[in-house]
Recover the amino acids of this structure.
């Protein structure tokens, strides 16, 4: 028989790992606790090694990844040397946490915050956003003179992205997902509006690895709340299908039922840097902007466009073959299968090269229990001829067939 | 200890503390609750815990104290109401997990399971020193601190526990693996 010490040591080696969200729950409660008498001068330096634990939770797995470039090296590759220096500094947080969902492996590599860290400037007005190289003084002066606001104090979040079907071209042009921060305790729509306004992304492929740098206004001002970065392929990006938001408790979680990409990373930002007054000012500005939008009348369409919409409104499944012509070709007829939550991912590429994407519920596609429905799509460049109609049919097996039509507009 | 250091403890010792919770509670839900309560209690006691002086022992002692308190409350409730006893899910998990392992791994796992089950059947006064020594890798002096018993008592309980385990496992392990 083997030595009893060896047997016990082998058999009793700790193997039970706490659920990732159990740890997150503790950390979130730790954040709500009273401030400590002293703070760790090393800040979050040791967080870097923290997630070396392999943690499994439901459909998502979280583990450490060391195969990627470090955030400072990625910043160098992007050509942002000041940012690279910042990522090497003490105020940065290296995370190295990978979440696997929807066929993606998303790794949150690190975060840093600071002023004027990149060579690009973001400017925003109430309803407009522009970015320009800091050398493009003409454009920047013009934006300044038009009352746009410069955003210099920024948070930068570095990710690595892996997906078997994601080509380098698609990654650069349209990766099919969106990164955005959410602050617990704030309405997600308000958060997205405040923080996405003037946010930016840079993508780079190096040695076969895909890197995404997300930047937005300083997130640390909200750091007295839990702050998360989401990466989602849902449409809209933040919905009850992909994330569970409890408005009363102010908590956010992934919806485990969602089969697509709905990564949710907790950002360990320094709570001592929170600036509730500035955060409140951002929220006030958002609400003011919302009021302005709501009180601004919808722009009227040119007469020809309005006539086209009015014509489309009278088209029904019964008369569509008289009033419209079915399109032909590979994208003209499509069948959509519902996902596990009963939604259909509708993606239409029209003959003019415009792509429209949405995730629709059955009720959204077929209101009032109908099984056939016409939906009309927008008009490009005020040209009525670009108006398209979608004739949706709900099949007995739960799939949905779409046939695109072009309305026979009267001369 | 600062809150950041406590956060680091979660990452550094999370598996150790959770494994301990799982083994003393024998129940996943109870283990989750105990693990969370341990760190939340530790947050209240931050000023008492020193990050430099082995916080793992403190965390284990907190977990043990909380579990003993809970057991006492549970026993009290059981007396006044017919409370359903806590389900032992640990063995069930082991059976489920075994279904997916290759044969060589299965043999190792069977041995591990037999040993773990034997440890779980030990009286608590023997089981706890064994878990703290072999699972948590604590030196005898720290086990004494966690269990609030003299060092000599820890040593004798470890000795007794090993004797009991040798007796129980001798037949099974000799039979199976020679």
């Amino acid at each position: 028989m083997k030595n009893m010490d060896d047997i016990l040591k082998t058999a009793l080696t700790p193997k039970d790992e706490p659920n990732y969200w159990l740890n997150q729950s503790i950390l979130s409660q730790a954040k709500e606790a009273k401030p400590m008498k002293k703070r760790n001068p090393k800040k979050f330096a040791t967080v870097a090694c923290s997630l070396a634990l392999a943690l499994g939770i439901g459909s998502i797995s979280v583990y450490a990844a060391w195969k990627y470039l470090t955030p400072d090296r990625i910043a160098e590759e992007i050509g942002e040397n000041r940012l690279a220096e910042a990522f090497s500094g003490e105020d940065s947080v290296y995370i190295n946490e990978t979440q696997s969902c929807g066929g993606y492996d998303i790794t949150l590599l690190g975060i840093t915050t600071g002023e004027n860290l990149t060579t690009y400037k973001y400017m925003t007005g109430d309803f407009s956003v522009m970015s320009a190289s800091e050398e493009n003084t003409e454009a920047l002066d013009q934006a300044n003179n038009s009352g746009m606001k410069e955003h210099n104090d920024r948070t930068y979040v570095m990710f690595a992205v892996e997906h078997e079907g994601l080509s380098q071209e698609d990654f650069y042009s349209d990766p099919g997902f969106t990164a955005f921060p959410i602050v617990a305790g704030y309405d997600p729509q308000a958060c997205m509006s405040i923080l996405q306004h003037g946010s930016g992304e840079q993508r780079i492929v190096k040695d076969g690895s895909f890197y995404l740098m997300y930047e937005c206004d300083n997130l640390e001002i909200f750091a007295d709340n839990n702050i998360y970065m989401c990466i989602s392929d849902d449409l809209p990006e933040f919905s009850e299908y992909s994330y569970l938001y409890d408005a009363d408790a102010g908590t956010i979680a992934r919806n485990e039922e969602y089969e697509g990409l709905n990564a949710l990373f907790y950002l360990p930002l320094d709570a001592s840097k929170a600036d509730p007054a500035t955060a409140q000012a951002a929220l006030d500005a958002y609400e003011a902007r919302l009021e302005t939008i709501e009180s601004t009348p919808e722009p009227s369409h040119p007469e020809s466009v309005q006539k086209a919409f009015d014509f489309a409104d009278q088209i029904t499944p019964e008369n569509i073959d008289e009033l419209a012509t079915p399109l032909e070709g590979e994208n003209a007829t499509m069948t959509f299968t519902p996902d596990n939550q009963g939604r259909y991912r509708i993606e239409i590429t029209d003959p003019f090269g415009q792509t429209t994407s949405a995730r629709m519920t059955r009720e959204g596609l077929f209101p009032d229990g109908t099984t056939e429905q016409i939906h009309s799509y927008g008009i490009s460049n005020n040209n009525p001829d670009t108006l398209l109609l979608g004739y949706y049919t709900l099949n007995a097996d739960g799939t949905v067939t779409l046939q695109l039509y072009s309305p026979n507009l009267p001369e | 200890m600062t809150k950041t250091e406590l956060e680091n403890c979660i990452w550094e010792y999370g598996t150790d503390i959770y494994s301990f919770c799982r083994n003393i509670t024998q129940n996943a839900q109870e283990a989750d609750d105990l693990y969370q309560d341990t760190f939340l209690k530790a947050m209240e006691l931050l000023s008492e815990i020193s990050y430099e002086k082995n916080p793992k022992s403190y965390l284990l002692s907190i977990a043990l104290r909380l579990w003993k308190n809970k057991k006492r409350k549970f026993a009290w409730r059981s007396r006044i109401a017919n409370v359903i006893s806590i389900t032992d899910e640990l063995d069930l998990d082991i059976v489920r997990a075994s279904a997916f392992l290759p044969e060589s791994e299965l043999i190792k796992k069977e041995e591990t399971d037999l040993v773990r089950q034997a440890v779980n059947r030990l009286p608590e006064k023997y089981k706890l020193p064994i878990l703290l020594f072999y699972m948590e890798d604590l030196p005898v002096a720290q086990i004494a601190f966690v269990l609030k018993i003299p060092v000599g008592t820890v040593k004798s309980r470890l000795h007794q526990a090993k004797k009991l385990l040798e007796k129980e496992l001798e037949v099974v392990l000799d039979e199976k693996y020679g």
Notes: Confidence is low (pLDDT under 50) at residues 33-65 of chain A.
